[in-house]
């Protein structure tokens, strides 16, 4: 049975409140932790300049590597905590941003997973934050890859959709207008009826995916005035459809 989830209005209102609280905490914590991390790196580089022996040098490199990974995690949290007014909004070619992100992910895509990207020609540009768009596509792709350990197909498409008032009835964030759409679909194991409403909850995780990644996707799409629709069928795959508004 194919399942569809765009968020019941009551459930989604609670989800939005949760994400606002998480965003507030993320902004403060990521800033404080980043300051401490810079201190650790400063002292580590200072020791490195003292030309320690090979044994110590290897451990210093390990510390630097861990700090760099933590720095990347903090960047993600900072994005989550960003006020919409602080996003670097600019006119973007969404197709180009997707191509660049997929190219950057090539090293982590297993050989048993194939990527198809039939992107829409002459796609209208959108106003968005390039870093946020890359984070959205990256998180959705990594989530899909983790859910398909036996391999499969990921298809990324773009297009334009016109949303009517009738299309908005079951979704708290939807509103009529013209939208640029990203669709990321797979032929993996799918998501069960019990799990589907929980996938954007930051506290929820499964063996194949982590709640924070999808929670970040949800928050960033919402900050751009868009929303996400998910369809899934157990044993056949999952499809994420993301709507970004087109300015008149």
UniProtKB/TrEMBL annotation:
Signal peptide: none
Domain Histidine kinase: 28-248
Keyword Transferase among record annotations: yes
Pfam families assigned to the protein according to its UniProt record, in alphabetical order: HATPase_c
Keywords for the protein's UniProt record, in alphabetical order: ATP-binding, Kinase, Nucleotide-binding, Transferase, Two-component regulatory system
Coiled-coil residue windows: none
InterPro entries listed in its UniProt record: HATPase_C_sf (IPR036890), HATPase_dom (IPR003594), His_kinase_dom (IPR005467), HisK_dim/P_sf (IPR036097), Sig_transdc_His_kin-like_C (IPR004358)
Domain of life: Bacteria
Protein's recorded name: histidine kinase
Lineage: Bacteria, Pseudomonadati, Thermodesulfobacteriota, Candidatus Desulfofervidia, Candidatus Desulfofervidales
